[in-house]
Design goal:
globular, RNA-binding, 3 domains, about 475 residues
Length: about 475
RNA sequence: GGCGAGGUAGCAAAGUGGUAAUGCACUGGUCUGCAAAACCGGUAUGCGCGGGUUCAAUUCCCGCCCUCGCCUCCA
């Protein structure tokens, strides 16, 4: 089943296939490691992960490269604030990023190159660009000459991009006054005092590479001049990806990426996430409120990747119940067969969910189809082999989505206050004696103490209100 | 101002030229001493607004309104 995916450049859905007929080469712009990634960042990475899983389940191997930006203004600034070397500082946040990725069940990329380790590659690319007349050196660094690349602006659909007065203050307060044109962007930045020890040698003096260049250099190194799919958040369309295209196409004879895949932003309570509004959440923030990474992942794929997704705590609660609903089906079906697990098979009865997923990575539509199918399947009326097929199909879809189902154990509280425990024990006695009036009074007392009793067949359970 | 993405039930979110999936919430029922859980049902004459095309539009076309994003180093 071929996966179709919207292409930012052509603005149409195109079939995803490997250029070389074998391995799909996939580049993702990774995080800048100067702090914990927030769930908005992870929306992009989770969607990219689903993409990869679908491609692989469609029978195409992938070569997935995702970079780590470990040198830029922010990493330098914050490492100095922290009193750490840039390397120690970025290593710490890279490790944190990896831990979060693992918690979210993201497949690790096959290659995860860092910018600092690829400075020689970036220097070589600058040399090529200068030699071909696409870049020039000044006292402030080396700049890409945008006017030398007529196709500049095609991706963001603004061919003649003009700087609007007032649209940016960078033009006036920047140290890049020595550029030929305001549109030109830095390939190499000359060393500044505030860079501290963070500079490298180059034919143009000491300094550091510009941000856009690393992705061009590293994708060239690991994927070649032409590769299949390039992905990132929508905010990277301009200028980052536009600049990458310019650098790469001018430095090589290739076409660079053949398919552009951009993920829309995550909103919080209807607005942009930002530190100043206090609505910027990390996995840790959500864990502190009792939400699991699986629930976060579910929320992040509960909207189509090209539409803004509004994140709320209500949506996390909804995710919890939705996952439990799937888990209940799985549990009761497994119990009927008296087995513990079933290997994922093909999609089986979940074919419609799989088909929907392959249509421009429609994850919310896919989840809807999963539940529609689940609601139709009545384990009591199915044969053993039909149940095995259904369980295998469900596992197949869940693995494509990267979702893990929760354990359905009731979490019995262990920190019940003695007086509440005593009340509950007395109520149980009253209940056994069919003294309903006393039992009801005791239930009320337990509730006013902040606890809820749930009766089972031959035991009861206490949970916090 | 330019460009892009959106506006579908209380919330979230699919989808389609032929009359609206799904999850949560709510609600009726079964079950239960009563609850809870579970299970079985119900809940948008309507898809931002106004025109147009069509036998038929939420879906196509035109205009408008609103939201969000980007406009030089934000996923």
């Amino acid at each position: 089943m071929p996966l179709t995916l919207h292409d930012t450049l052509t603005r149409e859905a195109r079939v995803v296939r490997a250029l070389d007929g074998g391995t799909l080469k996939f580049y993702c712009c990774g995080p800048t490691v100067y702090g914990p990634a927030h769930i908005g960042n992870f929306r992009t990475f989770v969607v990219q992960d689903v993409f990869r899983r679908v491609v692989e389940r469609d029978g195409t191997a992938t070569l997935h490269v995702r970079n780590i930006t470990d040198v830029d203004d922010k990493t330098i600034r914050d490492s100095q604030k922290a009193g750490l070397s840039l390397a120690d500082f970025t290593r710490h946040w890279t490790e944190k990023f990896h831990a979060d990725c693992a918690a979210l069940n993201l497949l690790p990329p096959h290659v995860e190159p860092g910018a600092v380790a690829h400075i020689p590659h970036q220097i070589r690319m600058i040399e090529k660009l200068i030699a071909k007349g696409h870049a020039y050196a000044t006292s402030g660094g080396v700049y890409f000459k945008v006017s030398s690349f007529p196709q500049y602006g095609r991706l963001s659909h603004l061919e003649d991009r003009e700087i609007k007065l007032g649209a940016s203050t960078a033009a006036t307060d920047s140290d890049e006054y020595d550029k030929d044109s305001l549109s030109d962007f830095a390939l190499w930045k000359a060393r500044k005092p505030e860079d501290g020890a963070n500079f490298w040698r180059s034919p143009w003096g000491e300094g550091r590479p510009g941000w856009h260049l690393e992705c061009s250099a590293m994708s060239l190194e690991y994927l070649g001049e032409d590769f299949d799919v390039h992905s990132g958040g929508v905010d990277l369309v301009f200028p980052h990806h536009e600049n990458e295209i310019a650098q790469s196409c001018c430095a090589t004879h290739g076409r660079f990426a053949h398919h552009w895949f951009h993920v829309a932003h995550l909103m919080v309570d209807g607005g942009k996430m930002s530190k100043s509004q206090g609505n910027l959440y990390t996995l840790e923030d959500l864990a502190n409120r009792g939400y699991t990474p699986e629930e976060v992942r579910y929320v992040l794929i509960s909207g189509h990747y090209r539409a803004p997704l509004n994140f709320t705590f209500h949506s996390l609660d909804a995710a919890r119940h939705a996952l439990q609903k799937m888990a209940r089906f799985q549990k009761s079906a497994l119990e009927r067969l008296a087995i513990h697990s079933v290997e994922p098979s093909g999609p089986g009865p979940f074919a419609s969910a799989w088909e929907t997923l392959n249509h421009d990575l429609n994850t919310p539509g896919c989840l809807g189809e999963v539940f529609t199918t689940l609601n139709r399947l009545k384990p009591a009326h199915l044969s053993d082999s039909e149940i095995v097929e259904a369980l295998g199909g469900l596992r197949f879809i869940l693995q494509a989505l990267g979702l893990k189902l929760p354990e359905l154990k009731e979490d019995t509280a262990t920190d019940v206050p003695t007086e509440v425990a005593t009340l509950a024990a007395r109520r149980w006695e009253a209940k056994k004696n069919k003294d309903w009036a006393a039992a009801d009074i005791l239930r009320k007392e337990i509730e006013s103490a902040g606890w809820i009793v749930k009766d089972g067949k031959d035991a009861y359970e206490l949970t916090r209100k």
